[in-house]
Structures are given as C-alpha cells and as structure tokens.
Specification:
- The protein is of the alpha/beta class.
- It has a single domain, classed as Alkaline Phosphatase, subunit A.
- The protein is built from 16 helices and 16 strands.
- The strands form four sheets. Strands 1, 2, 3, 5, 7, 10, 11 and 12 form an eight-stranded mixed β-sheet that branches.
- A hairpin with a 3-residue loop joins strand 14 and strand 15.
- Helix 1 packs parallel to helix 9 and helix 2 crosses helix 11.
- The chain is globular and about 65 Å long.
Length: 495
C-alpha cells in the first residue's frame, strides 16, 4: 500500500465497534533475529534500545519457535497453532488453503473492536492475510526505489521456491542454475552510506511513528515488521562502524554433531546464492568474520528503529496503556556446526528472543527460564488485554509468568523441521533435546538425536545411541509420546 494511501486510511473515521481490550498492543517482529542482544548477555551486541525495553519487560530466556523458517513460524505464531495443524511447512503455501475460516491473532483483536494495522513483514513475504487488518497492509515503497543492493532481498522472495535445503538433493544442473542466481541476489553484505530511511526498515519505523501518532486516541493493535538481520546483511555504514572487527571470534564448534544423521544439517544453500560466497565447501574464515560483523550491524540498525517506536509511545503518552511485545521469528546459526541460516532443529535455530512489557507489571526487568513457545503468544495477549478467549489454540497463556516469573511451568517445548521424506520432531526439556526423525510415508522412525545441554551446550555429540543414556532416552520417549498436550502446566500452576 502506498504511504499516502496508508496515512489516509488510518486518519479516516473507521467506525470500529467499541474495543473491549484494556491495552493497546505494539507488536514488533524482527526477521532472523536470534537472542543476539545485550539484554541476553551477548557482549558482541550493541542494542541499547532493545535493552531499555527489556528493563521494563519480562525477558524469556528459553522461548522456542515451532519451525525454524519464516512462513511456518509466523503462521504458527499468528494462528496459535502448530505446524502439523496449519500444514504450513514451506514458503509457498498459505494457511487459508487448509484452514479457510481460522481466526488469526490480529483478526481476533479486530473482531473485538481494535484497529489493526500491519507494516512491512508480518506474514511471510510482506503479504497480509486479508481478513486480519482494519487498515490495508503497508510495505516500504517499491523495491526498485531501494537500489540494486537491497532489491536482492525482495528478488529472493519473489522466487517460487527458496533454496534453503536444496544443495544435497539437487541434480548438478539444478545446482548450476542456483549458482548463477548469485548475480541476481547481489552481495551477501554491504554497508551503504545512507540515512536510516534510505533502507526499508527505516521507512517502516517512520510509518509506524505516523501510525502511533494518528491512532493514539483509539484502541490499536499495531504490527511493525523489520527485515534485518535477514540476508543480505545490509545496514547503513554507521552501524557497521559501531562494531570493531576484532571482537568477533568464530564459532567454537564448526562440525556436525558426532553421530547425528547428515540430513539433520543443511549445506547453507541460501547463503551460497549471494556474491562473495563459494558455491560449496566451508565458508572461509575471513568471510565468516565479515558475516558476523555485518549480522550484528544489522541488529544494531534494527535496534535503532525499535528505539524510535519506543520514543513515539513515550512522546504520545501511550507507554502506560500499551503492551509492547518483541520477538524474532526464529534463531540463526552463525557458523556453529558449520551452518549459517536457520532450517534445523538445533538450539541455535529454534531458540528465540521474546520480550513483553505490560503496563503495571510487578517484575519489570526480570527474566524467566520457563519453557515457552510461540504458540503461547496468541492466548497470552488475549488474556493480558482482557479479551474473550479464541477457540482451537494450541498454546498456553504465559500471563501468570508476568507476575511470578519463577513459578512451575511447561515441561517441554516442541519444534519440528522437514527434510525430503522425513519430519524431524524435536522436544526441548530443561536439560535435554530429543529429536525423532520420522518417515512422512508411514511414521516409522528413521533416526534419533539426543543432546545434553548441561554437559554439552555446543551439541558436539548425539547421545541417542549411548548405552549409558538408555534410561534417559526411555524417559524422554515416554514424555515425547504424550505430545505438547502432556507438557502444559498443571491447572494449579496457572491459577
């Protein structure tokens, strides 16, 4: 939607029914953002604005997405349902083809009188679900206006099939075609000397500020999606200059876990479609350091845009009646296991940042180690705003954790990731991760993985075949068989 048309739409009388909710919601989504922030203890990060949001929020240290790739994880979060219910495992399909009448998170707020609006990437590809918004969706200008560097990102989204997993199973001819696409996508990182709004995320921040100013007397659910640090790692030069290259050490463990099946990993297919990146083999050390610095520069760039939104809330007197929730749609490998991207069931791909600030909360600035999942966000926001519950959700409201971050909670969090002919189902408990790879044809088990994060946080060895862990595996398999329903908090723990 064009900027002028969007501003006209939010300024026009909307005749929405009286909203029943107690608070506005500023819903901030960040593409490919892992917990690479100062408030999560990452000394490489320069994120003063996210850190000040954390100072008035509850910070979730063990939150997990349901599938570590854009469309499935966003669909799962925005529907409050798991991938096996949405049937969205890839980037090509839309959930309305499976669940035509499902009510989305913003749609539920819209149905309860909120003005709902979305900016840039909320749903995958920047496209809204047409029933969810009061105001038509807005994306930053035209890709052509961003120049050839940033246009590479949108070119990749226009392609029918993103090649995250492909290189191991493709034919030589298919690999050759994908290698040739590198010249279409452009450089893998860049530091143009432009103002913040010379790139899309700066434009999104500017539009979000306008929306806040226009909607400040209404009850709103405003969704702002930021593209960085998604590939290509492009941020204004001053954000690169913040980061000293010498502080970026390479990942400590850059091998596949001993004993894990080959298909549990991938071959960095998406990264290899950009210039500067070799078409196969290890990523050279100097390039790894450049990528690390560029990733963190992009995080700092997005952090600055988030700071502008927080300032707008304060300036317009909205800080005391607006819930602010910030999430990254999945984790990201930064060289660990020799991997870049998401696309796995490992800890670095499935663990996500999640912050929520609620007016008047008892424990601002605290953290919780409670196991939490993205499917919990829908019921949580509904409960915190005092709206009626939506039916069919497969998460649990974490509202009780806001006042008591240390209370007993879930026993496990669940993620999954497909490979050709297989689905890897992964269960993360307080100490362990059990992943079972099942045939999609007959559900027979093809392989298993077990990691002990107390003794092996880098996932160097798969313990599933270890005789000394037989009793642990048996216990975890029994828990796994109960599914997510068997891991939810007991009623006494949510009262």
């Amino acid at each position: 939607m064009h900027r002028r048309a969007f501003l006209s739409a939010i300024a026009a009388p909307l005749f929405a029914q009286s909203a029943r909710g107690k608070y506005n919601v500023l819903f901030i989504a960040v593409d490919d953002l892992k917990p690479a922030m100062g408030c999560y203890g990452d000394s490489r990060a320069i994120t003063p604005n996210i850190d000040r949001l954390a100072a008035r929020s509850l910070r979730f240290t063990r939150a997990y997405c349901q599938q570590a790739v854009c469309s499935p994880t966003r669909t799962s979060l925005l529907l409050g349902r798991r991938p096996d219910t949405t049937k969205i495992y890839d980037l090509e399909h839309h959930f309305r083809g499976v669940l035509p009448d499902v009510v989305t998170l913003p749609q539920h707020f819209k149905n309860n009188g909120y003005i709902t609006a979305s900016l840039s990437k909320i749903w995958h590809g920047g496209l809204e679900d047409g029933r969810s918004n009061t105001i038509p969706h807005w994306v930053p200008a035209s890709p052509a206006a961003w120049g050839t560097v940033e246009n590479a990102l949108w070119q990749s989204r226009r392609e029918a099939k993103v090649i995250a997993d492909g290189w191991r199973t493709d034919t030589p001819a298919q690999r050759e075609r994908k290698t040739k696409r590198k010249t279409v996508r452009g450089p893998v990182w860049s530091a143009p000397d432009v103002p913040d709004n010379g790139l899309p995320d700066g434009k999104t921040a500017d539009m979000a500020i306008k929306a806040i100013e226009t909607l400040k007397n209404d009850r709103f659910f405003l969704m702002a999606g930021f593209l960085k640090p998604h590939l290509p790692f492009i941020a204004p030069k001053r954000y690169h200059d913040l980061h000293n290259p010498s502080k970026f050490a390479l990942a400590e463990f850059q091998k596949a876990p001993a004993g894990s099946p080959e298909f549990a990993l991938h071959t960095n297919g998406e990264l290899r479609t950009y210039d500067m990146v070799p078409p196969s083999g290890p990523i050279p050390d100097p390039l790894q350091k450049d990528l690390l610095r560029a990733y963190y520069a992009c995080v700092s760039y997005t952090d600055a845009q988030i700071g502008k939104l927080l300032d707008a809330l304060d300036r317009n007197g909205l800080a005391n009646n607006t819930i602010v929730i910030l999430w990254g749609d999945h984790g990201w490998h930064l060289g660990d296991h020799g991997l870049w991207h998401k696309h796995t069931n490992f800890e670095q791909a499935t663990r996500v940042p999640l912050l929520i600030s609620v007016p008047g909360q008892k424990n601002p600035g605290q953290s919780t180690a409670a196991l939490t999942e993205f499917v919990d966000i829908f019921p949580s926001l509904t409960a915190l705003c005092g709206l009626p519950a939506s039916s069919g959700l497969e998460g649990v409201s974490f509202a009780p954790l806001i006042d008591n971050p240390n209370r007993p909670w879930k026993q496990a969090a669940f993620s999954q990731y497909p490979r050709p002919g297989l689905m890897g189902y992964s269960m993360r408990t307080e100490r362990y991760r059990l992943t079972l790879w099942l045939s999609t044809k007959d559900r027979t088990e093809v392989a298993a993985e077990l990691f002990d994060y107390e003794k092996d946080p880098n996932e160097t060895a798969n313990l599933a075949g270890s005789p000394s862990h037989a009793s642990v595996i048996a216990t975890l398999r029994a828990q796994f068989a109960k599914g997510w329903q068997g891991a939810v908090p007991r009623p006494s723990n949510v009262e």
